[in-house]
Structures are given as C-alpha cells and as structure tokens.
Structure prediction request, 405 residues.
Amino acid sequence: MFSKELQPLIFVAFILTSALSVSSSPAGIEKGRRKVVHVLEDDTGAVIVQTAPGKVVTHRGGSITLPCRFHHEPENVDPARIRIKWTKVTDTLQFEDVFVALGKQQRVFGSYRGRVFLEQAGPGDASVIIQNVTLEDYGRYECEVTNDMEDDTGFVNLDLEALLQLIVYAESSQGVVFPYYPREGRYKLNYYQAEDACKKQDAILASHSQLHKAWLEGLDWCNAGWLEDGSVQYPISHPRDECGRKDTPAGVRNYGYRHKEDERYDAFCFTSKLNGKVYFLKRFKKVNYAEAIKACIRDGSVAAKVGQLYAAWKFQLLDRCEAGWLEDGSIRYPIVNPRSRCGGSQPGVRNLGFPDKKFRLYGVYCFRENKDEAVGGTGKTKSTIASLTKRKSSNSIPVNATKAI
Prediction:
C-alpha cells in the first residue's frame, strides 16, 4: 500500500484500436514519430506516464503496440527499480494480469504468453506489443509504472477494428454482429452457453455498442439475445406487431440484466475480419454433412463456421446463391447483391436452419487459413496484410437481412 501522504495521480482514458502507429488526425501524421500526452506534471518529482491519444488500427491476426511512455523527475533513477505492469480491465472492474516487468525480469500471463513483449524503443518506453491479435484481446488495458513509493497509471481502450489501413485513418466498420441460436432451437441458451456458442462460431458475445451500431446499419432481428454484459436485447428497424407492437418506435429493445444461469435466450455474436478465406467448394454432387466435412479436409481446409461466413460476406464480399453446410450443421448462403431467386430483396446471410445431417441436398462452405507470415513487432506472426492491399469497401452493405427464411 502507498502512504497516505502521497497525492493520488490522475487517470486518463483513451480510445485506441490496435497499434502500428498513432496519430490524432490525418493531417497530423508524421512518419516514424508517436504523439504523446502528459498525464501529470508533479513539482515534487514523480513518475509521469504518457499515453497516446486518437485511434490506432490493426486486424485480427496482426500485431498491435499499446503505447505507454514514462519519465521520472528528477531523471537520475535506477532503471532496475522501475516496475511496469499491464492489466486488462473488464466492464465489471475485474482485473486480468497481462504483463509485468521489474528491471530485466519479465513475466507474461495466461493467453498472452508468447504474444506480448516490451517494445523497448528506448529509455522510458513502457509500450507493449501484442502479436496475433484475437477477438478476446478486445477490451480496456491499464499501464502502470511504479518507482518505489510513487506511481502513475494510464488507461488504453483496445478496440479490434475490422480492417487495417496503413499510415492513414481507417474509417471502416469495426466488425459484424450476427444473431445465433443452436440446433436445439431458439431461446435455449443461458448466458454461459451463449458465450460458448459464439466462441465456437469464431466470435464473441457482442457488446451493447456493437449491437447498437449494427442496428444503425439496418440490423433487424425479432428474437432477444444475450450480450457480453449479461443484458438481453434485440434490434428492431421495422416495428411490427409480432416484434413488440407496430406502433412502438424502432430501436434496440432491452430486457435488462437477466439471470445468467436460469434464463434462456439466443445470442448476438460479434466477429471481425478473417485471417483466411471462405469459399464455396465446387462439386458435381450434393453432399450430406459428414461428406461435406471430409470434402473440405481433402481440399486442405475445414468447414466454415457461422462467424467466418458472416465475416466473408461483410469484408470479402462473398456472394453465392447456393446453400451449403457449415461446421455447426446449419445451411446458409451469403448474398451481397440481392436478386429475385436468392432469398429476398435485402443483402444478408440467408439461414435455412438445421436439416437432417443425412440429407444430400447441399454444397459446403470451407475455410482456409491464411498461412502467409510477416514480420510484426519483435517476431514473426501470421498476417493478412497482403489481402488488405486488395480490400474492398464494405461500408455500403446493410445488415438488415440476417433473418432465417
């Protein structure tokens, strides 16, 4: 514990979206330099932490630098006595250790092992590099620098963006939200089952802000689903009697926080850009589920997950008017350009439900991981940077046609 005589140091929060470089405006970009902001100036001689304002962007599977710098006043401090600690802070104010360093001694925790390193760009640099960024890395991070009895802390929000636009700002959508229910039917998942269901589909439970943004983009779904904070909500763009009365305004309907174990709903999942490619496997014959799984494996791939198909539809503009098996046993197909014989007038991922796995009536969607490697941070990591140079804008695609048909 710190002595009561020490004055508390201020906390500053910034929004970041995964790091290669930092800038506060397109016009303010200066190659090879980071802009920083003082958190505190203290006449008594304190550790002063600096973090970066603005947004910095990467993609899933890429590398990110969480920027944090410090200096000590006076500056004649022994580096071996400086302790750097990075912690992830959840919405419920729970703390997960990420990284700690004291002098030359370092320790990385949990799923961050082998992926988190000090940037070591010079004296006073407490920045860390996270390689192979995952959906689970999304969240709020705390950088704490301690020198004996004095400390300072800065907060960084890491928001996984969908696309990487090198050097300049990325104005792309952060990801795609999709509703999900299992083979057993609708309203069958408690909170923990919903969380697991999203993970199995290459996704995480969506946040309220992500669902709200999806609603602004046109998402309309009449079944309530769990969100990551334990609330149950659903987005309505076109009010109607069967979805809470026709005379009520459009919006995100909220059931509030529900009992996580006893109550059952669907799930709203969130996923981001893929580190790979989804494709429809061309075959002369239709296949049942078991044959579909084997066909993808023979082709050097695996059957695609629901989240992967949504990401391919949103970011790779996958458009295929052929129904196919997915890994969870559902039948779906992605439509970017609606036409009369492909399930309606709106873009979306069509869902035909969960048929008998013995039926030989469909094709299959496969997923092949991007095996390219690129140097990122302090070591090699899988990357989809090559595909980003050929990316297409997805901002024009509404997401109001995700309903089952």
Confidence is low (pLDDT under 50) at residues 1-45, 160-173, 373-405. The radius of gyration is 24 Å.
